């Protein structure tokens, strides 16, 4: 037992555990991993170690348990109550998943993991995939559209991370006056729009050139074959009117 106490004291002094208000179970998973590595098995020792590492906001949630620890399994009781009292409800998680969660400044793979965490046990790949792709900026869509539909959503997230890494290397010049740097994805999207506009303009020009050449060849053939309009060519002097250009004259009709 003395060795366990020594390990616990060492853990208090050296172990740094992250506490996430929205996911307290993760804190206890980290703590239990540290206890296993250090050979700590006592419920009371785990309880004391957890209390020493919890932030003030978490301690206040389980105040009565800390002040009067239960004699039977104090660590499990502390863990159970803190998780129950502070975890986001299932309904809230689903609402956040369906309506609130956005990419923000996160990498696509981080965003995907948040969605999967919110989905919890009902994590259905089809739903997560749809929400993930729907909430990515348009700049990602052109790249991901070329990926096969059979690829898992985790693979799509990796590819999207690569796009994010490429765009993050573009930095704006530093000026004397601090200005807000444009969003890299917005710059990528703007570049894509400009490229598409240039391609459309080039296509329109090529079409005009093609039409002009086609019309020119038609006019040359028509003139060289028969310079008269259709009406004079068919009815001669009896034509009621003439459609220029036409080389017919009344002398030809009399002849």
From TrEMBL:
Assigned keywords, A-Z: Coiled coil
Ranges of residues in domain DUF7041: 18-98
Coiled-coil annotated spans: 185-212
Protein name: DUF7041 domain-containing protein
Organism: Acanthosepion pharaonis (Pharaoh cuttlefish)
């Amino acid at each position: 037992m003395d060795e366990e106490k020594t390990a616990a004291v060492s853990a208090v002094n050296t172990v740094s555990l992250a506490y996430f208000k929205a996911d307290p179970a993760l804190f206890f998973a980290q703590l239990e991993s540290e206890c296993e590595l250090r050979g700590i098995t006592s419920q009371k020792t785990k309880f004391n170690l957890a209390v020493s590492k919890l932030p003030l906001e978490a301690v206040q949630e389980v105040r009565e348990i800390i002040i009067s620890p239960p004699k039977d399994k104090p660590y499990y009781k502390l863990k159970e109550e803190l998780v129950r009292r502070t975890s986001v409800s299932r309904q809230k998680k689903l609402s956040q998943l369906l309506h609130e969660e956005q990419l923000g400044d996160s990498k696509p793979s981080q965003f995907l993991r948040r969605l999967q965490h919110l989905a919890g046990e009902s994590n259905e790949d089809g739903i997560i995939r749809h929400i993930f792709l729907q909430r990515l900026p348009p700049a990602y869509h052109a790249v991901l559209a070329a990926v096969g539909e059979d690829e898992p959503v985790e693979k799509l997230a990796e590819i999207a991370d690569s796009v994010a890494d490429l765009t993050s290397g573009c930095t704006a010049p530093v000026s004397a006056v601090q200005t807000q740097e444009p969003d890299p994805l917005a710059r990528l999207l703007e570049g894509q729009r400009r490229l598409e506009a240039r391609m459309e303009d080039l296509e329109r020009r090529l079409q005009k050139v093609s039409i002009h050449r086609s019309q020119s060849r038609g006019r040359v053939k028509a003139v060289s074959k028969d310079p008269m309009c259709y009406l004079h060519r068919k009815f001669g002097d009896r034509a009621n009117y003439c459609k220029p250009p036409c080389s017919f004259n009344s002398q030809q009709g009399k002849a």
